[in-house]
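Box 3.1. Reading complex inputs
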Amino acid sequence: MNIQNTILGLLMSGPKTGYVLKQMFDSSLGFFAGASFGSIYPTLRKCEEVGLVKMDLEIQNGRPNRKVYSLTPKGRKGFLSALRADLIVSPYRNEFLTKLFFFSYLDAREREGFVRDYIRYVSEKMDRLAELDTLAGVEPDAFQEMCYGFGIRYVRELARNARKLQKEVERHDDPGRKRKGTLRSGKRTQG
Amino acid sequence: MNIQNTILGLLMSGPKTGYVLKQMFDSSLGFFAGASFGSIYPTLRKCEEVGLVKMDLEIQNGRPNRKVYSLTPKGRKGFLSALRADLIVSPYRNEFLTKLFFFSYLDAREREGFVRDYIRYVSEKMDRLAELDTLAGVEPDAFQEMCYGFGIRYVRELARNARKLQKEVERHDDPGRKRKGTLRSGKRTQG
DNA sequence: TGAGACATGTAACAGGTTACATGATTTC
DNA sequence: GAAATCATGTAACCTGTTACATGTCTCA
């Protein structure tokens, strides 16, 4: 499911322009997939050349003409075959954890700054997902609702995880700060 | 924190060969960062050319000579400056969710197959992380322990999330299976 | 005798992004 | 009158992977 096949998938529900596809990537799919104009337009052209889609020109006055792309039977087959192909999950990458791995080379103020930045980032992501629910350009089907639900739970747990980490970092950098209900006996040595 | 800066970071704790760096990428960092030989060796050479690291050749008999790289003062500064640079989180990508978005074009058997594949993938990831704890080539510092803890909680929640999704998909595909609050009228085909 | 660890390296390819280029229309 | 929206497109670049190439030693 590279960009080409994702575009074909989006065309399954009807003809669309590159511009509209970009909006879908930025909204509905934004949480787990994305594409820039610099990849969308060349991909559409390439798909047309190999007969996966056909293009209909819609003449407009004042504005650039719209190029409306629709799936050919070959394109439909191509998409379904890609969709059915084995699931290959690309490795998880996390910029923040990479920095955390090297936190010992920073001072406490810097460390806590990065943790706050990350929590802010995750919170914004949560907010944007929550907004999506309100907007909802096209009615999502049952599975797209599940995508959304998965995303909501995912970012919620990510935020929880990050806050837990924040406390660990704070406790490390200033052990005297939060002496309240800490049960030394119940604390396990991680490792 | 691209590969170059991550490599410099790993050299902070002492000189290493490209081969050893690869092992670290595959084990300690494997959960959130990675690199292939095809990027490690050219990067080391490039870093040497611009004076970020220096190379010491260790002659071996029988085996290829080891090229042991160590940080120069310039390399140390370069790494610290990269580490302190603003946190830029690259967008979350998820191949499975992309497929889920298009699940309506599959039949129930195919859908449940993909969900099972994903759960298996996440479980394996969990197992590999748990093993890491046992192995632990180098003693991790406090923040590296936190990385590890974050990872453990992350995959655990991911697994929980995936199982919840699995139930939703099953309930959708066979509403009669788990009758709890569902008011669906039609009887399902048996078999 | 075959697999896997040790050890380095290159070339071709993949799969994108960013910045640039163009230009009218609508909205604040 | 500035900014955002509509609408398409190209070229240069980035950052990395995969596959190939080479060769010895060790262990089962």
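In summary: The helical segments of chain A are 3-11, 18-26, 37-49, 73-84, 95-101, 108-135, 142-173.
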